[in-house]
Amino acid sequence: MLECGMLERDRQTLRRRSAVLCKQLVVDELLIQSLQADDILTESMAESIMAEQTSQKRSWRLLLLLPKRGPRAFSSFCQALRETEQQHLCDLLTQSPEKDGKETHIESIQPEEEPEAKAGRLVMQTTERKRERYTDSSLPHPTQEGVAAKRARTHESMEFSLDADSPINTPVLPCTPEFYHSHCQQSYRMNSSPRGFALVISNVTFDPCAAADLDPRKGGEVDDEVLRKVFTELDYVVTVHRDLTAQGMRSCIENFCRRPEHRTADSCAVCLLSHGVEGAVYGTDGQLLQLDWVFEAFDNAHCPLLQNKPKMFFIQACRGDEMDCGVEQIDGPARTCSPSCEQRDAGREGQGDADSRQRGDMGRPRIKLPQRSDMICGYASLKGTAAMRNTKRGSWFIQELNTALRLHARDTHLADILVQVNGRIKEREGYAPGTAHHRCKEMSEFTSSLCKDLYLFPKYQPQY
User: Fold this and answer.
1) DSSP state of 177
2) pLDDT tens-digit series, residues 290-340
3) CA 215, CA 213: separation in Å to the nearest integer?
4) Terminal CA-to-CA distance of the chain, rounded, Å?
5) Averaged over 279-289, what is the pLDDT?
6) Distance (Å, whole) CA 458 – CA 158
7) Please, is 148 exposed, middle or buried when counting C-beta atoms within 10 Å of its C-beta (0-12, 13-18, 19+)?
8) What is the DSSP string of 59-125?
9) Which of 9, 74, 280, 296 has a CA that sits 20 to 30 A from residue 26's CA?
């Protein structure tokens, strides 16, 4: 039985810091799981907290519950803050009271000054969480992955992310044998070790002569490291290439497609991170690599070793230069639905060949495959719109993809994971009062020609 009540000094500390905590605390599933594991929160309490629609409301509900959860609740909460990379808030709660008068309020932190943005390029500065003060005096700013903008952009803008900005480091949660056996029959085979091969191409620095309009993608190096770590933990052999020209990207992808090891692997993943436009991404030389060419390189004709195997693509790049300014949600309890997005066909039906070339040894027709199938592609933004990237923490899309894979790959198939990513991206918004970009938004999407559920079954190895 949990003892009633928190120690009075701890209760007073929480009350004294409540305003700061409500604004700065990130209440995510990892923090809640830590408190549940320590028997501070019950399952129903955890559900009620996470059911709140905004970060501040989740923080407020948690702070109302903690003082009632016994004398260990305060120390357990501090430990959960450390585990979720919110050490600055832990320090705030545990510092001696006499320092209170000297403390600088978190909300008074000002964004760093940035040089004037290039004409036609959006550069927004950031009001960042207090954790930035403890690690680096230069605050990050969000920027978009596009090239030329149609409307004038201002450098006075700031961004405040409503969600956690730092990539989580919790280990990928393992799949249980029971879950594997109850789901493996209706899903893609996924038990090879390694599960497959992953290719990450990350263009961060662009040739100032050949691509003068393409600014460095500050924060892009965070994204490729996040992807390397999470796919390695998912049992993929990961290869990372940085700063390739368009032709270099083509050669890299062609070599990857020809790897003979694909024969014994159950899947593959390709991540392209760069500036971009609709249907293409930029090489460091300012030349475009068409995404249709990338998908074609992995189709059933050009990459036969991956026939009938799932092929995952993740594109962190703009698909246009329009800033999504968002719309006001209508009154009422129901949430607005995101507009449906047209999905591109995975392949086209071809003309039949002569019967003599389509019959096997026994005279029966061979099974035919569509030109392109078994692919799923996650895009950071919708057609025509910009993708957002934090210059210190990486892109919104890769952040949320990393979190969802680590927490949910154990029991959720990839299409539903990308739905969860969409939901998280939908909640995020920028902060730029007095400008046309106030409360800027991003919306991710994915297209799929998967024919089964795609479970990654992390850390499960069948016993033969």
Assistant:
1) H
2) 999 999 999 999 999 999 999 999 999 999 877 777 777 675 444 333 332
3) 6
4) 44
5) 96
6) 39
7) exposed
8) HHHHHHHGGGS-TTHHHHHHHHHHHTT-HHHHHHHHS-GGGGGGPPPGGGPPPPP-PPPPTT--B-E
9) 9
Q: What does each C-alpha distance from 402 to 357, 381, 390, 417 come to in angstroms?
A: 46, 16, 15, 10
User: 86 Cβ partners below 8 Å, 6+ apart?
Assistant: 25, 26, 31, 131
- Residue 426: closest CA among 377, 378, 380: 380
What is the dihedral angle through the alpha carbons of 180, 184, 186, 190, rounded to the nearest 10 degrees?
Answer: 120
The rounded distance, in Å, linking the Cα atoms of 446 and 314 is 9
User: Which residue is it, tokens 């009075």?
Assistant: 8
pLDDT of residue 344: 27
Q: Does the model's pTM come out above 0.85?
A: no
Q: Give the whole-angstrom CA distance, residue 246 versus residue 253.
A: 11
For the chain, what percentages of helix, strand and coil (3-state, to nearest 5) are there? 35, 15, 50
User: What residues form DSSP beta bridges with 398?
Assistant: none
In the chain, % of residues over pLDDT 70: 74
Residues 6+ apart with CB under 8 A from 315: 271, 272, 276, 281, 291, 377, 378, 379, 380
Average pLDDT, the chain: 79
What CA–CA distances, in Å, run from 157 to 319, 356, 404, 420, 435?
A: 22, 66, 29, 29, 7
Mean pLDDT along residues 439-460: 94
297 touches 303 (CB < 8 A): yes
Whole-angstrom distance, CA of residue 197 vs CA of residue 193: 10
104-140 pLDDT, tens digit per residue, is 332 222 222 222 333 333 333 333 333 333 333 334 4
Gyration radius from the chain CA atoms:
24
Q: Residue 3: pLDDT above 80?
A: no
Residue positions annotated with a catalytic role: 275, 318
In the chain, count of helices (H) and strands (E)? 14, 14
Task: Give the CA distances from residue 358 to residues 45, 141, 172, in Å, rounded to whole numbers and listed in that order.
Answer: 62, 58, 45
How far is Cα 396 from Cα 387, in angstroms, rounded to an integer? 8
Nearest-angstrom CA–CA distance, 382 and 315: 11
How would you class 332 by CB atoms within 10 Å of its CB: exposed for 0-12, middle for 13-18, buried for 19 or more? exposed
Cα(406)–Cα(231) distance, integer angstroms: 10
